[in-house]
Write a structure and sequence with these properties.
single chain; oxidoreductase; two-stranded antiparallel sheet; mainly alpha; 2 strands; EC 1.8.3.2; disulfide bond; 2 domains; 6 helices; Sulfhydryl oxidase; ERV/ALR_sulphydryl_oxid_sf; about 190 residues
Amino acid sequence: MADAERDTQAGVSSAATLPTSTTTESPKPLPKGVVLGPDGKPCRSCSSKLAFSTWASQMNGSSKRTTPATSVPANDCPPDVEALGRSTWTLLHSIAATYPEKPSATQKDDLRGFMRLFSKLYPCWVCAEDFQSYMKKEQVRVEGRSEFGNWLCEAHNEVNRKLGKKEFDCSKWEERWRTGWKDGRCD
């Protein structure tokens, strides 16, 4: 949901530390942007790749890589909070784009249930809790494609505001996610 670090919302500051393995060493401060999971360990899904990699290098006692660095990010690594967020919004907006204009009662129940479970199972626990809070404040609108698409766009913009990102014009959500831009670049 978030596509960037949420360390301040998670109660993690750049001064947070993790205990080290021995009592003679002082705790190492966590790199900025590393979010701790409920278990007290760094959460890969809640932290940016850079922050998590910095922490991993710090824990290994070296910033040396065993493989050469490439300018192309690896596609076979677990997603960081940013990649997870981008993929999530793509999936959710695509679901909205294909949701019926006049859904049956079962389809409405299915969408409500999906969104409820999705908000509980989302890999970034901080993002999941934030989305659950949003859903309590703003009930999922499932009466039809337009209502759900606009609700989802508003939810996405709520996240964008928190992350200091530009808001999307919700009057254009169908053009962006369903029909393609009017200039034909998606055809």
